Structure formats: structure tokens, C-alpha cells
Amino acid sequence: MTHGILEPFQNADQAWAALEEQQGMSDGEVIDLWQHQLQTAEQLRRQGAEDDLIVAGLLHDLGDGRVAESDHASWAAQLVRPLFGERIAWVIGAHADAKRYLCTTDQEYWSTLSPVSQQTMIRQGGLMNQEEVAAFAANPWAEDALLLRKCDDAGKNPEYEVTNIEFFRATLQRVAALRLADKSRSHE
To answer: Where residue 156 sits, what CATH number does that domain have?
Structure first.
């Protein structure tokens, strides 16, 4: 399954356009991917997450509806890495593993997942072995990925619609501009 194959993002407008393309796209949940990613970002904002994580929430499921479920996280990470950097890319790439980690380390977590998310967890590798648990937990951004995961799970509410879309677009543009400025300074 490939729909709208994208090149790695070079600017915020490309990232936003890819997100907007997901209006009406479904991964089987009760809301479309556009609203799901906005809800995930909104949950992160409500949790007091910094802008980098809000952007990760906006873009974490760009692979859904475009590539195989088992590849969606790593594919999205590759799209965002050149523009948004390693931390945002790693967190996006790790959000499926964060689900596996939580299901492995918290016996109650499985029951909090939607039926679709339970099925995708199995296709994404199922429970982790002890080496995978240790490797995930050792990453300095593991807590960020776990926060994204929990907000991802909460971002599937058919009764709620994110209306302050410009806030999220401005956040995406601000983070992209900071990353581009950082790259420019590092090449001076």
C-alpha cells in the first residue's frame, strides 16, 4: 500500500501539506488521521509538552494510509528527520515501540488500547523481550516517546474536534524555523 509517496521534508509547508492530505484518510479508528494527529498534538499541549513533542504528535502517523502498518513509524521518522532533527524523528519512530513497551511493562495498559490499536500492536511485533525493554528504556528520549504514546491513545475521540488549527500550524512553522536556523549556524 503506497499512497502519496513523499520525499523527506525540506520546509514546514511540505510537512503541513502531508498532514492535511490525511483529511478523510482512515487507519480503522473512528476519526480520520488528520483529526487524530491534531488531537494527539492537543493532548500533548494540554500535558505541557514542549513544542518539539507537539510537532511529533502532529506528524507521528504520517505513514498510516501510505505504507504498511509495520513500517509507518520508521517511514514517518525518515520524512521528518532532515527538517526537524533526530529527537523528533526518534520519538515518532519509537511511538509503536512505546506501545509494545507499555504493554510489556504494564499489565493494565493493553485494556486501555482501542481494538484497532490492539491489533496493530500485534502486527508491530507484539510484546517486547527483556533486551528490547532494556534498550528502549535506556534511550534518553524514551520518556518523550511514552508521553507521545499515551497522548496518541487519547487522541481518538469522535466527540471532540480540534478547532485551533492555526496554533498547531504556527508551532510546526516555529519549530521548523528554529531547526533551519540551527543548521545554518552550524554551517557557518
So the answer is: 1.10.3210.10
